[in-house]
Amino acid sequence: MVPTRAMTDIPLLPAEFAGLDLLATMVVVVSASGECLFANASFENVMRLSRRTVQKAHLPDWFEDPERLLETLAGVAANQYSSSRFDAVLRRGAWAHEEGLPVHVVVSQMDADGEGAPRVLVELIEIAQLARQDRDERNLDQVQATKELTRNLAHEIKNPLGGIRGAAQLLALELQGGQVGEGGAELTEYTEVIVHEVDRLQSLVDRLLAPHRRAQVVGDVNIHEICERVRSLVLIEHPRGLDILRDYDTSLPDFRGDREQLIQMVLNIVQNAAQVLSSRIAAGDAQIVLRTRVARQVTIGKQRWRLALELHVEDNGPGVPAEIRDRIFFPLVSGREGGSGLGLTLAQTIAQQHQGMIDCESEPGLTNFRITLPLP
Asked: What is the rounded CA–CA span in Å between residue 106 and residue 40?
């Protein structure tokens, strides 16, 4: 039997608005006076209000400057103009103690209802979300260009390294054969330095090329198994002074991916966090949090996904230095003395090979690396 409004006591979703419920941005259909006729799931989630509460409420009441919206609604409903855009601040209803949410408001005409009363479509886009999408697209383009440059440069470096190492070894053999007079021992030390430094560069180049050499071994992967494996590895290395807390959404499904690569990706980020926490580990109050969540209607790069998982790696360290914050995923960029600057680069490469990406928000006392991977 089909449930009726009286049976469920919950406003039914009008069929003509069903598509709006799938959008990631907040969408509200209102009358010319601002009365809410429909609000999609995104608006409910942001406002932390049920559809029953939103329906028949007055949308301008949730704005810090309601007059601007009222004037725009009246103008669009009267066909003075077909659409209008402006920036505003949204108050979160019952959560009025929170800071206002800056939004970009798009007000557009739509068909009248069955009785001929005008209706207006109001789309609310979080300004922070717009900025994040622009930043993600820019970072994706930069990382892609850097990846191509790094691969080409690594191949160009790799070829002469073999010749240098071979020449140094041949020279060392001649020196050991006694064909060189006084100072032969000192010259042998020089050849050893050459071979050692060539091997170090070879190792660096191999690490740069590693994600592109090995074919992916794709299978079913559980993100929490990966987190537990990484957690145990890092705690073995830091048995005292470091807590790695879990905050898992156990409803997250398995997904397809290369398990070993994904372990390496998460391990690189968690190890990086543990290394910057060295002083707090010594003090005994270092903390890393592994938090998993599901995200809906997510844009990764330029592609839209209905569902995605988010793994947040948070630490209470000093934060990423401001001067490198926009470049931390670039090769050889490190905010830590002695760091190679490759761990985060390789992690980002692995994420992109799984159609995901990693971004970072940091301030002193809280750094959050967010890994976003699409779900089937």
From this structure: 15
